[in-house]
Amino acid sequence: MTTSTVPVATGRLPHGTAFWTTAAVFLAAMAFTTVPTPLYALYQQRDGFPTWVVTVIFAAYAVGVALSLYLVGHVSDWVGRKPPAVFAIVLELVASVLFLLFPTVPVLLVARFLTGLGVGALTAAATAHLGELWRTANGDRRAGVPAVVATIANIGGLGVGPLVGGLLAQYAPAPLVTPYLVSLVVLVAAAVVVLVTPETVRRSSRPWRPQRLAVPTAGRSVFFAAGAGVFAAFAIFGLFTSLAPSFLAGEFRSPSRVVAGAVPFGVFAVAAIGQVFFTPVRVRVQLVVATVAMVVGLAGLAVAALLVVEWLFVLGGLVAGLGVGLLFRASLGAATGLVDAPQRGEVLAAMFLIAYVGLTVPVLLVGAAIAFLPAVPVLVGFSAVIAVLAAVAGPRMALKVADR
User: Fold this and answer.
1) Which residues contact 391 (CB under 8 A, 6 or more apart)?
2) Phi and psi for 70 in degrees, rounded to 5?
3) How far is the C-alpha of 16 from the C-alpha of 329, rounded, in Å?
4) Residues β-bridged to residue 9
5) Residues 362 and 232 sit within 8 Å (Cβ to Cβ)
6) What span, in angstroms and rounded, lies between the C-alpha atoms of 33 and 19?
7) How far is 115 from 136, CA to CA, in rounded Å?
């Protein structure tokens, strides 16, 4: 069945305006998912739980995202783009209320899981909605704008969240309350915006089934190299959205919540900007830059941990972030380039499943290791393993896309 993308409801906003408001909603919803990042160390100080518990709380989010992507990430093709967005924002509103009223570890787990469910429902729907709103308003003019804006809203939102959370925790009263109150207000406004946004998909009746996953029969070596690439990329994202603030507070004796939020922000910002900046560059060159940046950045993290040099830790994260953004984009392109258009959704679903396994499993293993070993050798070991993955995946794909 082919999705109909004609404007089916005018809403109260013109399509051109709705494009930018939808981007803002997408950014706000993604930002909420990382607002708790700089607050984990405060929860630890208040409740006295060990660092490995932070990894479990974070993993609940990643599990929610993966489950939601598999079960409902594709339903906007026939139920419309707006219902998944409303569903996602409602889940995030519930999560923000839970953070406010019941900030204990079991409830934090539930709130993070609900947040993940919302993100999984929103990501594909919002990305597709942006493209359709833009085409309705502008036709084929500057056709690449929606992809760039979606990237900035998605990855940029993930970076904005910890920065805002850190600033509010540092300078506003009630550091474990104010960030969620602000989030609650923003999410309510986002829900109103979604309701007045035009729909772009004509609803149709269609039996529900989970998203199919597909591994191409041809070019499997490229697919698995791409899978290793997105796994490595999301492992670094996982580190900086879960454990990096705890490392900064513990190993580097940096109590600043602003720093705890600014470092993940920088990693995500560089990843997003790097993708946009390198768009005109050949894929092979992107892969070379990505591999070098990730290996050098991760080496910087390891050396910073060994020498206890905070600025080098931050610099290593930023350099690795550039590599993460480029390797992730190139890996998705390499994987989807193996199949025809009708199968690309299934291949993308498989790649995102691998990505969220990468977001979850390495961080959980790091958390488990920290329960028995000092943090520094664990961080060095993590950096070494992910650097090897990147060093294998990047060149392998570069050889296969040398003509592009």
Assistant:
1) 291, 294, 295
2) -70, -35
3) 27
4) 199
5) no
6) 22
7) 31
The token pair at 141 is 């003019």
From the list 206, 172, 130, the residue with the least C-alpha distance to 35 is 172
Rounded CA gap, 115 and 121, in Å?
10
Name the amino acid, one letter, at 185: V
CB 66 within 8 A of CB 211: no
Whole-model pTM: value is: 0.87
42, 124 contact by CB (below 8 A): no
CB 77 within 8 A of CB 346: no
Residue-wise pLDDT tens for the chain (404 aa)? Answer: 445 545 555 458 898 899 999 999 999 999 999 999 999 989 988 888 888 898 899 899 999 998 998 888 888 888 889 999 999 999 999 999 999 999 899 999 999 999 999 999 998 889 889 989 999 988 888 877 888 898 889 899 999 999 999 999 999 999 999 999 999 999 999 999 999 999 988 888 778 888 887 777 777 888 899 899 999 999 999 999 888 888 888 788 888 889 889 999 999 999 999 988 898 888 889 999 999 999 999 999 999 999 989 999 999 999 999 999 999 888 888 887 887 766 777 887 888 889 888 988 998 999 889 888 888 999 999 999 999 999 999 888 887 765 44
Q: Which residues of 346-376 are buried (b: 16+ CB within 10 A; e: fewer)?
A: bbbbbbbbbbbbbbbbbbbbbbebbeeeebb
Measured from the Cβ of residue 139, the count of other Cβ atoms closer than 10 Å reads 9
- In the block, tokens 């060159």 appear at 285
Compute the radius of gyration of the chain from its Cα atoms.
20
How far is the C-alpha of 89 from the C-alpha of 119, rounded, in Å? Answer: 9
* Domains of the chain listed by start with CATH number: 9-202 (1.20.1250.20), 212-404 (1.20.1250.20)
Coil, helix or strand for 281? coil
Widest pairwise Cα distance in the chain: 60
